[in-house]
Every structure is written in structure tokens, then in C-alpha cells.
Records
---
Amino acid sequence: MDHPGLLYWSQVSDEFISKIAENITGRAKQEDNTLLVSSLNIIDLILNSKNEGKMNLVLREVPFESLIRHLEKSDERVILNVLTLMNSLYNKARDHVKSDIIEHLHVTPFRCAIEKSVLRKGKQLDVGIEQQLIIIQRIQLNKLLEKALRIPTEAEIERVFQLKLLHGESNKGMHANVMSEEKRTEFLNFTEAVIQTPPGSLALETILSFVTHCADS
């Protein structure tokens, strides 16, 4: 039953949403943990209010990456609400934005915040925080499964095969008009291995990531 004068989260003004978002993204002049917790909770409620216009505004006003720095705080109320909002943002985002969010879940700032702050040694993990971390982990594992079940393209396979790390020779052979029989057999065997699902394209991504890491170190 509706109550006179009651304002639903789906009915709040755009100006109100933008103002609350400032307390999260760092645009506000001051930052207080209690205010931050309230703001995170309000934004999450608006995001889940089933109003598409308000949802899109929240997605614009509160970028996923703006939440990562708050995970470094020691206040578990902040951490819980940040993780909850992160999962809500992912659930409401369109596919291309979800891909961007998953990339943020693998970058150093996020991983360091989780390892050094959220999962500090000797610290009893809050049940609510643990549940939100499980959801994030499931998101990451689902993405890995998706890659493992995708058959890589021939161009992707050739790119990896050309790496000296794999065949110990100059990659000129791959561009020569005539490929040696030995090299052709090696390439076909490699192709046959990585088109299996799993590991699919996940195998190639892992190899490229390893090579990039070695090159940078």
C-alpha cells in the first residue's frame, strides 16, 4: 500500500544522485567513512530500484574504477558496501561495460587492495564481505570458463606460434613462402592442442601474458 508523501528511490532527482555520487568518487570536498557508507548504500538502492533512467545515471556517475581505492580503508562497513556496489554495478552493466569491469578486477590496484587490506593476515573476515568476494570470484571464474570454451582464431594461434619462446627460432619462417615440413607439422600440432575446449583461447592468453611479463621483467 502506498503512503502519502513517501518517496521511492526510483523517484529521487538526478541532482540528488549526482550529489551523493560525489561522496564516492572523490569530487566532494570532504570524505568521512560514515558519510561514505551511507552514500554507497543509497547509490546501491537507487541502482536496484528498477528505474532504467536512474540506473544509467548511476552507471555514469559512479565508474567501477572509482570504488577500488575505498577497499584500502580499514573500516569493514566501507569494504562491505563497496564490494556490494561493485557487484551491483556489474549485474546492471551492459556486456561491453562488464568486460571493462572484469579488466579492472585483474589490475594491480584491485588485487593489491584485496590482498593487503581486505584479506589482511590475522584478520577474521566478515561473513558479508566473504559472500561478496565469492560473487566477485565467481564472475572472474565464469569469464575464464568463457575464454576456455572459445576456439581461438587462426590469426591468434599464429601470433603465439611465432614467439621465439615457443619454437626457439626467428619468426621469419612463418612469413616465408614455403614453410618447412617440420615447422608445418609443429604448427599443426600446436593448433590442434589449443583449439580443444578447454583450454581454447585461454591457453593462448596465458602464454601471451607470461611472455609479456618476462619481457617486462
---
Amino acid sequence: LFNGLLEEEEDIIGNDDEMLDYKVECIEYVGTALIIGKEAIDQRRDDAVLDIGNDLRWTQEKHILKPFIKHLNMLFNCINQAGHECSKYVALLKQGVVIAAFIMNEQAFDDRQNSPIVAKFLEISEHTIAIELAKRFQDYKTLIRLACALPDIERKAKIEEYKEFFSSGDFCNMLYEYYLENGYMRDLLEVKEPEANLFFATQTNVGWMRDLENGDFAKACHTLKTLSRKSNDDVILKRRLLSFAKLSALCEDEVDENFLEGVKRDLNLIKLQQKLDPNLEMKFDSPDPVSKIRSCTAEEIIRANLSDTSCNIDRCFE
């Protein structure tokens, strides 16, 4: 029934010869039919004797939701064409909210993140409705993105409001991921919740920053050394990691001399590679992104020097 309605609706909406008023009337009619169907489903569920618990409901299957989503897209397109001044705008908007809520209620948690449905309400400047839907159905990613578009003080206040409202580890993890991916490293390091420690524990590439922030220099320097070993494809990154490892090791109350010597040896090897490639130093200091340069092994550096007839081998031991 729903698919048949949608096919007829698509034909009318896609017909350039039809008047806009008739298209609006068609959208309203089909929307009413879908809502009646939705209410019938709700009523049957209210009357149900058996509780299915966490089992998948038939309405959660994507092919069942497809007609509702398709209609909602046509509804928003129609609103965009007719404008806010359309006499049916409020009626269509109310239908849109009911259908949107039904769809999002049936969707899985991951499918609700960065919801295109919420985005549609934002596109027609219905920000209050969009945010209420996002809050009700836990579209954390949209809420975080919108909050982070606010001025700094407002952003922090809004984030704290959401943390208190949701009281959810999932929200915190998505917030930390957003901070990490969008350059809010300072904010991320300032977070003191236990969830942040768990997050950093899974983020090896930046976890050492948290260790430095907490004064755990021993842990930070060993993490940095490990990361440097995994960065042989990028000598610039490798040198940077080793330099931080050296500084972290020197910050310890009791300096581990053996560890420090190992870091210095690795840095000296990179210095020898610089002598083979005079342009490498400029790339180290360049503020612009540069293509990766592989880190050479000691054997490769020795072979390169031995094969260079103009090379003064003594310079490698300066």
C-alpha cells in the first residue's frame, strides 16, 4: 500500500505540468495516509500482550522505512519550492515532524548520527525542531557539530549542557572524536572525565599528549619511542616523535640514561641521513606539508656513502 502511494506521489511531483498547489495537496494527502498507518502500528503495539524486548521490530527494517523516507524527501523539496509563505506550510511541517520522529525512532543508533532528516529541518531554517529531534533521538554528531559552530564561550556552555542532559559515554566518545578530528586538541586535553582517560587509552597517536598533561613523562616517552619505530615511512614525523621522546625522558625525576642514549642514537642516524640529502633540513623546517621521505637504516646510509666517490667518510663521524 505504501509503495503504491509513493509511486503515484512520485509521478505527480515529477510532472512539470502539474501546478504547485496540486503537488502540495498530494504531499499532504500521502502524508496523512502514512501517519494513519503509523498510528495504527502504534495502537497495535500498545495493545500487544507479548513484549519483544530488544528484538528487531519489522518496522526497523530499512525497506519498510524506505517509503517514509522517500515521502519525507519529497515533502521537504515541496516546502523549498512553495516557501514559508505557503498556506499549507505549517500543516506540512507538522506532518514532517511526525514522520521524521517515526523514522528516527525505528532507526539504529548509528543510522541516526549526522541524520539527513535533521539536516533537512536545518536547511529550511527550522533549527529548534532540528535540535529537539536530535536531542530526542540522540543524534550526538549533529548536536556536537552545531555546538562547535558557536562562539567559544557558548560552545563550551552548550557542550556542558549536553553532557549533563545525556549523561552518556557514547556522547563523550563522539565529542572526543570530533575534537580530535577537527583540531580541538587543547579542549580535548583539558577534559577531566574518566571517559577521556579511556578514550586516550585507545588513541595511541595522541595518548602521549594526555600523559604529558598528567605529568606521566615516563609513559609518554616510551609511547613516543614506540610510535617513532612505526614511522619509518616518514623521517620528518620520526624525528619529531624522537625529539619529544627525548624531552619527555629529560623531564623525569630520575632520567633513564639507557633509554635516553637509545633515543639519541636514533636521532643521530637521522642527522646522518640529512647529510646525504641537504634538502632534508629545509623539509624539516617547512611550515607547509611535504611528501613523506622514508627513514634510512644505518646500513643504507653506510652503503650510500661508500658508493659516493666524492664523499669524505670522516664527515659521518663528526
---
Amino acid sequence: MNFTKIFKPSYLNLFLINFIKTSAEFDSNHIFVEENLNEDFSKEKFQKYVKRNIEECTKNCMKNVNIKLNFMDMIVNRKLDEKAAAYCHLFCLKNLGLSNIKRNGRWAFFPIVGFSEFVSSLFAFLGLVLNIYIYHFRLSRLIKFSPLSFSIKLHYHVLNAAFFTSFMYHFNYNSFTRNADYSTALFSILVYTINSIKRIFLLYKINNVFSRNIMYGGIVIFVIYYNYMTFINFNAILNKLVIFFMVLVSNVCYIIIYFKKKNISNNDNKIMIRNLLTFSFLKYVSILFEVTDFPPVFYIIDSHALWHLGLFLSIGPYHGFQCKEIEILIKN
């Protein structure tokens, strides 16, 4: 069985067929042609074979496809074989009429202006911009009055790092951007969780050695944990359990704050509670989208992109909650 390259790949061609149900037809419109078929090896059998072996299809495509690196690829240090593999994976899926199938744990996406996952990158970038804007124009003037000023500043900077690395990761997937995205995302969840615990200490006026040093202890634990997971033995189940535990703890803390504050009738408190409920709701919806892990619609927007959208929308009410929290402390 020989495969011959018969046309130069076009992303415009892929974009157009995103909206059209296609099937595998071995003619001049496709990247593969069939030569010297034996009588007992029909086109139908070959089509079934390729459907069962999408990776084989991708490999054969990569041997024949003519793809070059452009300026955007050079900026993000994208490798030629990575670009060809992503193209061929998408091409085979569309031309064989298959539903989206993961390759190396990742869905096939249609690349837009050089981005591997344009929508996720877009929402991550917008989250970065909004986080910086709200912090500097609203929160920064109040933060010096908060007992949690160090923790809030740390979370702000960690969030910026998480948004930026996520933007780069979805721009171009490689080992560096993957590790950077994982570390900053994990650390941002940790700091968020510790801040929720410190808010409980503040609510009940607990001031001891543990409450004052919990953040430093968390940072030490994070460094040990991250190095173990990255350089010694990455355990996916353990990682999910750790993240689940942190999310659970933070949720419990904010539920306690809600029930403690919900009956206070002054306007500032009502606004604070409304913001708490809003960012909590958006967080839950985002998590729901993330765990569903549905494939990208039209090869453009998937569940993870909606996770980033939820995070982006939650930034405003989250900072609004923090601002009102500090204003209430100042007035009291």
C-alpha cells in the first residue's frame, strides 16, 4: 500500500469542511490515493481499517504533507513535526467523517492565527487583562487596610502568572508551557484555598501561630509536592484528589462566611454576599464544564474554553467581594 501526496494542505480547506459532514472518499480531493489494491482489499475495507487506526492515518499523512513554519510558529518555538501532527490529526478526522478523537490526551482543534486553542487562549488573556485592571483601579487603594493584604497581593500575582501561562499553553502546547501552566494553576488554587481559610480565622478573630504562618507552610508544601509530581512520579489520581480537597476546603469556608453574614442587613454586606454568591456560582459552573470534557464544537470551542470563560466572568465579582470585605473592615 503506497500513499502519495496529491495537494498542498490548506487550513482554509479544513475550515470550510468543519461545517460539512464528510466521509472518506479516496479520490483527487484527499491526501491519500490508493495504488495497486489487491482484489481482496476493497476500498470499504480500507476505509474501516483507517477508521480503526486514526493514528496510522495521521502518520501516513505526516510522511506526505507539505507544511512549513510561519512567523507565529517561530515566536512560540513550535516544532515542525508538532504542527504537522496537529494538522494531520484534524485532516484525517474530517476526511474520514469521524467524531473528534483525542491524540496524546488532546482534542483536535482548528488552528486560528497560529493558536492551537484560540478560544481558551483568548479567555485566559482577557482574564489577565481584567485581573490587572480591577486590581489597580479598585483593589490596590484598599488593600493596605486589610489584614490579608499580603495574601491578597500574592493571589493577585499568582493569578496573573496562571492566566499568562495558560494563554501560552493554549497558544502552543509543549513540555515547558504544560509544566508552567500546571504549576501556576495549582499554586493559584492553593493560595485561593489558604485565603479562604484565613478569612475564617479573621471572621472568628483567631490569631495564633498557625493562622499567621499558614501561607508560608502552604508554599513549602507546594514546592515539595510540585517537585515530586514533576520530577519523581506524576500520579494523576493523587493530583485529582489534592485539587478536589483544596476546592472542597475553600467551598466550605465560603459557605461558612455566607451563613455568618447573610442576615446582616447593611448595604455593604448585601453587596459582598451578592458578589460571593456570584463568583461561587460561576466557579461551580466552570468546574462542571471542565469535568464534562466534551470535544470542541466545530473544532474551535470545547469544555475547557468554557472553564476559562467562567473564570474570566468570576474575576469581577471576586474582586468586588474582596473590596467590600475590606470596606466593611475599615468602617468597623
---
Amino acid sequence: MLKKFVFLFAVMVIAGMVLTACGEDTSDNSEGKAKAESNQSMASDDLAENDKTDEANDDEMVQESEIGTLRIAYKNKDLDENAESGPVKLNVSGIQIGDLEVNEDYLDMFDGKKKVTVITLKMKAENTSDDTIGFYPDQATITTDTGDQADAAMFFSDNVGGDFIGKVHKEGDVMFLVDSPAKDIGKVNLIVDGAHDEGFESVGEKVEMGFVLE
């Protein structure tokens, strides 16, 4: 749409210069042509720049790797959803959903599936106490409004859980693999078991968070 607007605007500018020049003498006409050529050049530069921007955006939505090709259907890097479990704070700052076409050599890693949907949550967990607290957002479970339920794919995820020894934090990406196509998913629910102390006694409630894809 932006490229079309820039193109139409450029045509309108050039047409306006030509129409104005028709009623002027030769010297003014030459000046008008020069201005028209200058405007056309600027418009061409704008179009080229917008083409580059669109190509960059397209590249961001398709990611190639040795494992396969990930086509991102939804991404929100501006989330700021927070929850607490006892002395532990959990922040989810981003979500991404995409369809992964798995390369032949890596099918075994995905139970032989040629296509899977990858849901990635960017998380940060922080222990606000001086005690050692166990909390495992990287072993969380998600459900979707399309009927999926999946535990975190720990092999592909960052270490965001475990024992938090005193006032420390851990952050990274936690991935989940589901079967529903990315385009069909409208909501993702996150469930994390409550925090516990060194004696495995509960010190916090289970965390439940919901993310509507808008």
C-alpha cells in the first residue's frame, strides 16, 4: 500500500509539472523539465527505499536455518505481562508464532513431522528473596484456543528455570511445539507450577497467564 501511494504521488507531481509547463515559454519549460526530472528521481529513490524496507520486513518474517524454514505468522515484541509466585516475579515480554517446515535430516527431532508450529515466549524470572527458590518457567505448559496442549521443548529453549539462589534472575526464550497452523491460533495460555523452597515445600501459587493475538 505504501509503495502504491508513493508511486501515485510521484505520478501526480510529475503530471502537475508538465501541465504547468505547457503554458510557459521555452526557458521556463526547460526549468520545468529539470524540476520534473528531479522529482522523478526523488520518487524513484523513495520507491527503491520502500522496496528495500518491504524486502527487509519479508526477510524478518522468514527465517532459514539448518533445521528448516520458519515462516512467522505473528510476532509481538512489546508485551509486558507480569505474574508472581511467592517471592518470584515472572515477566513475559514477547511472543512469536510461526510454521516450521522441517528439513529431512531433522525429522527425528520432531517425531517425524514435516511441519510443526513453533510458539516462542520471551521470559524473565526473578527471585526477590535471599532464599534458594525453585521455579521452572522453562518447563511450563501451554494450551491454545485451537485445542493444543504442549510442554516446553526444553532442548530448544533457554535456561530460564531451576534453582534461583538468592536475588538472581534468568531470562531467555522458551519454545513450544504444537500441531495447529499458526494462522488459526488466536490465544495462548501459559501455566507454570508454583515456586518451592529447598525442601520442596510450596511457597507460591501456580502461575496462569493468557495472551490474545491481536
